[in-house]
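USER:
I wish I could look at a protein chain and see how it folds. I am handing you a single protein, as its sequence and its fold in token form. As I understand it, each token names a local backbone shape. I hope you can help me see how the letters and the tokens relate. The protein I mean follows directly.
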Amino acid sequence: MNEQNRTIALKAAEFAARLCMGSGVTQEFYDDFWNRLKNSPDIFKEFVYYMEKGDFAGKYKIGGRSVVDILIWQVDHFKAYLDRENQLKGNPSEMVLRAFDTFLKMEQNPEEILYLLDTESGSDYDGKFN
């Protein structure tokens, strides 16, 4: 690994640690997340793009879905939770962290996550509970 790649990897590890601290997750979660992230070149590139630009590249897709699709799915669930409980406050760090975590899991087991993305909606709509 050249010096530039080492610098990027160090910055990404620090950024991941800040997201984890802002989300209140355990050190074990961080260790697991970082190990999976650094071993996934495509998702690592997406993560670095987000870290550097504050936006999503959305270039890497699994089953036609990007990390942005996962984030939207999670926000949908979050909004439905707020509708029901009205006590949870938004945490952008956690939303981004969980989106990348789910994307890493989707890379290992795409069928399960793709099924959830296709069948679950956090919003209430006519016929949802029939």
